[in-house]
Specification:
Layout (H helix, E strand, L loop, with lengths): L6 E13 L2 E13 L3 E4 L6 H11 L7 E5 L5 H4 L2 H8 L2 E4 L1 H8 L1 H7 L5 H4 L8 E2 L5 E5 L2 E7 L8 E5 L4 E3 L16 H13 L5 E3 L9 H25 L9 H10 L8 H15 L1
Parallel strand pairs: 3-4, 4-5, 5-6, 10-11
Antiparallel strand pairs: 1-2, 2-3, 7-8, 8-9, 9-10
Helix pairs in contact: 4-5, 7-8, 8-9, 8-10
């Protein structure tokens, strides 16, 4: 999808296998900036390099022209094809320092955050060539300046990216989608990042990893309101249930998911990890 002449949004399909009998279809957005050189924001899961390359060819360009890959955070659906693209192009890969460990050491990531079917989504680490600290500006092309906004919560080093001249804000996974899989590191940081997005007047077009582009302010406000209400409902359930002694592994998670009326396959270690983060954050 062409957002501007140079800035394109490319949805990349994939599936998550929770077990041999359960899988769900997903997609994640990648952003392609067709400047004198190409800048790519997020790469999808492993195997997505082919679809990215095909899209570039459809637009008269070649994947070999990719000079910079920016990773919004370290989760597998965002980094899965990064190593392959770097191998093909010799590009530099940039990410926030808080994500470097999990991008460069995927074994550590899967141990600490056991995503179902992790190695179906990413099978190679990739070396980070530069750090994207808060406030840094990356020049993607003439009149395309990317301002890095550190937006922790979904993960420790998650970033949002503001296209300053075009007034486009890419929030990656910083805005929870109503009734989607609860998946974040720090509830309170996520609420702060959500509020910053809400109060910012720097953008006219909102992009996320999971939605179509939003340019109507009322639609944006509705989307943010739904995300905030969902987070508050999760918080209320966690504070009600995650107390005392757990009778069996994932028992608290099971009760919280049932209380919230969410699908049973949400009862898994990733969601339990997110919920336990509420309690840890309260104790800090």
């Amino acid at each position: 999808m062409k957002l501007t002449e140079k800035i394109h949004l490319l949805p990349l399909d994939f599936e998550i296998k929770f077990n041999p009998n359960m899988k769900i279809n997903r997609f994640v957005n990648s952003l392609i900036i067709f400047g004198k050189k190409i800048t790519l924001i997020d790469t999808g899961v492993k195997g997505c390099a082919i679809k990215i390359s095909d899209y570039m060819k459809e637009n008269g360009r070649d994947i070999a022209e990719v000079e910079t890959v920016i990773l919004s955070h370290s989760h597998p659906d965002h980094i899965g094809s990064a190593a392959e693209i770097k191998r093909i192009t010799g590009c530099r890969v940039l990410a926030h320092e808080g994500e470097k460990g999990w991008i460069e050491n995927i074994e550590a990531q899967v141990k600490e955050r056991p995503v179902p079917g992790f190695f179906d989504l990413v099978d190679e680490p990739v070396k980070i060539d530069g750090s994207l600290e808060h406030g840094r500006r990356v020049k993607a092309d003439e009149n395309i300046t990317l301002k890095i906004i550190h937006s922790p919560g979904h993960s420790r080093g998650s970033i949002n990216i503001l296209f300053e001249e075009d007034r486009i804000l890419f929030t990656a996974d910083s805005i929870p989608v109503k009734n989607d899989i609860p998946n974040y590191d720090n509830f309170y940081d996520l609420m702060k990042s959500l509020n910053r997005i809400r109060t910012s007047e720097d953008y006219a077009l909102l992009l996320t990893s999971w939605t179509v582009a939003l340019n109507d302010r009322k639609e944006i406000e509705k989307f943010l309101d739904e995300g905030e209400r969902y987070l508050k409902a999760l918080d209320d359930a966690v504070k009600c249930i995650y107390t005392g002694v757990e009778a069996a592994p994932l028992e608290f998670c099971r009760k919280a998911i049932i209380k919230l009326g969410l699908p049973e396959f949400y009862i898994n270690p990733i969601v339990d990890r997110a919920f336990r983060g509420h309690i840890k954050s309260m104790l800090i």
